Amino acid sequence: MNAQFFDDLSNFLRVAFLLFHSIVFYYVLSWRSKIEPQTDKRVIEYVLAVIFFNFVLNLLVLFKDYLSNFYPLLVGLNIIIIGTVLFYGYRRILNFNFYYLLLPIILFLFFIFQKNEVFAFSGLLFTSISYFHIYYKEKFLTSKPSDVVPSIIRKGTILPFVFFGIYSIFLSLYLITNLTVFNIVATMSVFLSLCFRVIFLYEEKYKTFLLYISIFIFVFSVLFYFSLRFIENTKNIDVYHKQLTLKRLSVEVKNKIDSLSNFIKVVASSEDFKMSIKKGPKQLDKYLSYLNQTLNTAVIWFADKEGIIRACSAEYREQMINKDASFRRYFKESINGNLSVFIARGVYSKRDDIRISYPVYNKGSITGVLVFQFYIGENFKKQINMENAFLMHSSGGVLIGKPELINRLLFNVSQEELKRVYEEKIFGNDTLLPSGFKQIDDNIFEDFNGQKWQIVKHEIVKDWFLASFLNLFIYEQYKNIFYIVLIILAFISHSFAIRNFERIRSIFLRLAEEAEEKRIAFDAIDIGIIYTDASGKIKYMNKEAIRILDASEEVLGKHVTEVLSLKEHENPEFKILSVNVKKIPVIYEENPILIKGVKFGDVITIKDATEIIQRQEVSKKLARMDVITKISAGIVHDFSNYLMVLTGNLSLLKELENSENKKDIIQKMLEATRIMNIIIEQLKDLSPDLISKKERLNIEAIAKNAATFVLNGTKINFTIESEPSLLPVYADSAQLYRVFQNILMNSRQAMKDTGTIKISLQNLINHEEKDLKKGNYVCVTITDSGPGIPEEYIDKIFDPFFTMKKEGKGLGLSIVKSIVEKMEGKIKVESKVGIGTTFRIYIPASEEI
Q1: CA-to-CA separations, 689 to 588, 633, 844, in angstroms, rounded
Q2: Of 624-628, 713-717, 794-798, 816-820, where does mean pLDDT reach its minimum?
Q3: Contact residues for 242 (Cβ-Cβ < 8 A; gap 6+)
């Protein structure tokens, strides 16, 4: 795998990624307008057009070898279309005037007149600026593009624009420089742009996308490699066959060279040749002419060690005698003691021949050089032409071949090399002209039609090659067919993958609709529901859970332990939930979501247990009251009978007793029975079985009498405020008196005989109070300035035997509540520590004064 492989692979993968991008936006165009009616279809159409024309641009890059001379023209036109689409898209939708997007048109005009491809390719740089311009506006300005097109540019989705801009920059650099590194970076940028776009569109299937695209890259890279390898092997086989043909063509010439090379060594060292040299030029000329006719060579000549030709066979004797051959490379090599074989065009004969030279020794020292020249036969030339071959010097000059190639220079050689060729007269006196081929690699050329050719060479002698052109167009055709097949396969693969994603999306959308219905149902229940994923991160909370936790939707995505802080409750049925500074009793349940033994998350339910615990406490109180009332009823009945008998007997005994001392004792006993009778009366108030006597009463008078009696002898000031037309109440006067008596006594004891008490009496026609039946009431409000009742004791003050006083019995307020409820009334209490306590008593009243 060489740089060209990675270059071609990058071009193909970039086309494949942009194809995926285009198909994605085609589906977006088809479904988003259905599920999001507010979506502006024009926006998606412009984005799809930009991506599609970038796809076409990269197709042109992929098939550039096939397009040849049309390639820069088509690329330049495509860049103009991209810039124009971007310009009108930004202008119509975002109201942005990016006039620099029209510069590709001006650059293309420069390309037409200057014929410089850089102008055609540089326009892509200006299109890339627009993507960064959008990023700048979204990131730093108050007027953001996402406000206009939220369906395309949303939070976290601006990165596709950034990477698309990077892709455009590096693609432009690649088009200008043809450097593979720019090509690879451009491909990676397109891939990252696609990944971030897929995160936005198919977040629920992003891992599946990564798996798919990884498999796609691997599979298609392998296919790409083996396909190119197959094409390369096919080309190498053709090169091998052509080399065999060239080798076959050169066999005759090489055999003759080998034969004459061996013979020239024999002649140069023979005594006959040396004797001819000694006898003089005429004898040597005859000897060389004889050899020339015998060997069927073109000419044989001898030069002294200074390079001056002293003898020559008859055909070219006049032209060559006394000429200087010291500049010839073969002479220089032979004068140094080496056999030299050289091919050149004769300066005098103007014929193409092969020259074999060998040093001539006399007594161990070189006295000159013997040269055999023979023409390259016409039969050999015909065979060369039949095989489209040619004889080429290492400098790239063609000596023998088709007329259009003779004296043409194929390679890009330096001036020094070309000067050496002219000095050595390799091509005689002829001048080498440009061939019209453009050398793009060591042995790769491009003709004026844009077709590529490879020179296949076989060396005949040093610096000379029998060569032939191998047309690479057929292999480019194979490669293009292979590209087309791979692109079709990529399209099919992408289509199936995206359809699968879209099918998942359809399922997801249906599930989303069902989830929305369930969400509405979940929000309507009074149980908090929390759904977490397998890692414990919160994915969903209904309204009740948000209320209980005093949270917002910002907690979504956090770990459940960051939101729920639970402790054990004294009752194992409950947990204590810490929310800010509050402690809330809750019923907590956690159930895993298991599918075939695999845990996908948890469903947590929490229910505020405050009311449940309160109801349980009330239930306990009612049960306790029921027990107490039943006990009190029995005690009241039995004890009242015993006390009546005891009181009567003590009264009779007092009348019969004459001793004053004993009378005092009996009187004390009667006093004790009176106190016991008061307790009996209190217990009667707790008993529901004892019937109270109801009569029409003036509640103001009872309140005044009770306050005067209880507060007498204290420093407590009391006031009574009453409506002028206060409604009368129906109640037992003694029980109503005890209501005022017990409340006022509690206030007196709490204030320690000093302070103020305010008693307010008001009519109330109930229509709104939920705890009261509809009807007329007298609302009695008793407010003191005592120390108040702590909040934790408010709910317990009406419990029997609950007291905050060291010597209290805990019956006073429980009796008050019992009496009020038997009158079908209601009592409430409010208290603030350090300020005082207020009792509100609602007593049923008459409808008339």
Answers
A1: 43, 7, 21
A2: 624-628
A3: 456, 468, 470
